[in-house]
Amino acid sequence: MNTFLLSRRALVASAAAGLAGMAFAQANSPAALAQAMAGTPATQLPPAAPGKRQVIIDTDPGQDDAIALLMAMAATDKLDILALTVSVGNLPLSVTEKNARIVRDWANRPDIPIYAGYPRPLVREPIFADDVHGKTGMEGPTLHEPRGPLMPTHAVQYLIETLRAAAPKSITLVGLAPLTNFAAALNAAPDIKPAIAEIVVMDGSWGVGGNITPAATFNIYADPEAASIVFRSGVPVTALSHDAARRVLLTPECIVPFRAMGNNAGKVVADIFDSMMAYGLRRRGMAVGPIYDPCVIAYLLQPELFKGAKVSVDVETKGEFTTGATVVDFRGYNRRTPNTLWISEADAEGFYALLRTQIARLP
Description:
The structure is a single chain. The chain has 363 residues and is α/β, with parallel strands linked by helices. It is 40% helix and 17% strand.
């Protein structure tokens, strides 16, 4: 019988491969797989600092946007919403700006100004998600004509003027939509960067693939050039990834408490959730689906519900099959300073408890 002698290097490699294989086999989710093989582990985030955070929310309602906005507008003790800026995204701008004003009415927050922004991506033709959100963008509840007007100023002009007048690191930009408006403001006026404390976005995936292509998530795929500008801006970015959001699954049982609240906002949320469950049945053959944009608001209110790691993130803008993909460097291959807090895990029970508390506060 032949005996093969292994070199020291081969033995070490074999042992490492065995350990990696064990970790892979024991992992029970895409995020756990990522961490089993990654060089930068996710850790639980600390609670939010005391006081109110000044935010500007960029949005493209969208069913999950509507729930996220209601959640944010209810948090008057934690969030000072300076304005909503509205982008093309899930639907054309004429629909998304109208929907933002309807959500403002539902929350009874006429004090929040709304500014319309770009009607198309920076360099590409727009794509829409009306197959998911319906032709109105907010399929489910009964919609009314919005009571309040848009502000006359363009969203990008508003962003530039507001940030130029703000104290250093005093305003958080919250991106629930394609990042067109934020990117345009950063491109036109780089001097606004010192005023931005953080840019928090619902963007990207690493372990679970995309939701518009196999590689890309919708908000980035809709305007990858804009996303690349934001991630490379030098401003701290927090990305609430689909790796985390797809842990916060909606089921029919989750809907019951909202319909039982007795307030209009609870009914609106339940109606939207029912529509999302109907889409889940059509798309996946089962009444289940992920919750995306509200996770961003949950991060702002209770970051301790999430785990993440500071890593380098880039956006693919030229790939034949990977345009819009987020390239997340957990192992430090590119030797760049981390530019993103990448959130990869979420506490689903804690999320729903927080959402119920916030929606119950509304009319």
